[in-house]
Amino acid sequence: MKEVLIITNYFPPETGAASNRIFHLAEGLQKHNFKVSVLTPLPNYPKGKVFEEYRGVFKHTSLESNITINRLWIYASNSKNKLLRLIAMLSYSFSLIWFFTWNKIPKTVIIQSPPLLVAFTSVFFLRSKKRKIILNVSDLWPLAGLELGAFKKNFSYKLLQKIELFNYKYADLVLGQSEEILAHVKSLSPEKETFLYRNYPDFEVKSTRHEIDSSKKLKMVYAGLLGIAQGILKLCENLDYTRIQFHIYGSGAEQHAIENLIKNKPELDIIYYGEVTRQALHQVLTKYDFTIIPLLNRIYGSVPSKIFEYARLGIPMLYFGGGEGEDVIEKYELGWVVQPSNYEDLNKVISKLKLSKLESENRNKIQKTAIYNFDFESQFIRLMDYL
């Protein structure tokens, strides 16, 4: 039985796209007769605090679904202070080095990037002619950080670019979740072998039945990270609520500001539910008329995994993020597209939504499209040829 190690910053019980993606990858490998182990920090995302049941230990090892999970110590923080964030990444990197020193590492290693520094630590210490390094790139750092305003083109940025290039150079294979990511990798390392590995969900689908009550407001939902990049606070402030009621699930940096906005401006038709599990979310999402997938600014290489998950649930989408995600929405007729930060156009599109596009017939069409085109198992079998 072939062994494979996955190194990641995110893994269940943490929530979010990155955690789900790596879990499905590990589970898929295990089902295809790989002996899978995972290296990940003690659970702490997105609150920046180690979950209560994992506190007070340096390392926690468990066997879950026949996958060995090694959870290592981290100085957890989601502070906006760049120094504290750097210390957090360095702490996990030191834990990784300790693990590499005292444990036998399989010949095949899959490394999640970003975080860039964690990926660099893993690539640097594990690179070997006898070992296959697979880099799973979900976002382009430091470029994405520059576009988000987190970085400036200074010495630190140039250093991060060199780290990025090092990671690509010593990876035997690069997995990218978008065509833009693969194009970027090829521009820096033309001979590098790449594979498009979308973040397709892997769960059973149920037929959907949904009818619109034309006498009431449309129910629009957002579920996910309430971070700066998503811009949910600004979205709340700029929506026209004449025709919609806005429902929000999730947590993150903007959570308290959103709660205060709802408290101070009760005339805004917003309902906030907090954070729920993915399983519970799947049960409630289908009752909403449509969902919105926003990014405050277009981020090169980004294709939100929500697109594929919501399509499988049969939920019409209003995509407000630009880039390659727009192409997916339009190509597969999954909903509507509005340029990011154009709130005037967004409100116009919402005001003209046709009810027929939100009801059962169109939802079933979206679901069938997802089942046929966004199939986890088919993509995974293609990936097996590279392993």
Automatic annotation (TrEMBL):
InterPro entries: Glyco_trans_1, Glycosyltransferase_grp1. The keyword Membrane applies. The chain crosses the membrane at residues 83-102, 108-126. GO terms for molecular function: hexosyltransferase activity. Residues 216-369 form the Glycosyl transferase family domain. Keywords: Membrane, Transferase, Transmembrane, Transmembrane helix. It comes from the Bacteria. This is Glycosyltransferase WbuB. It comes from Algibacter marinivivus.
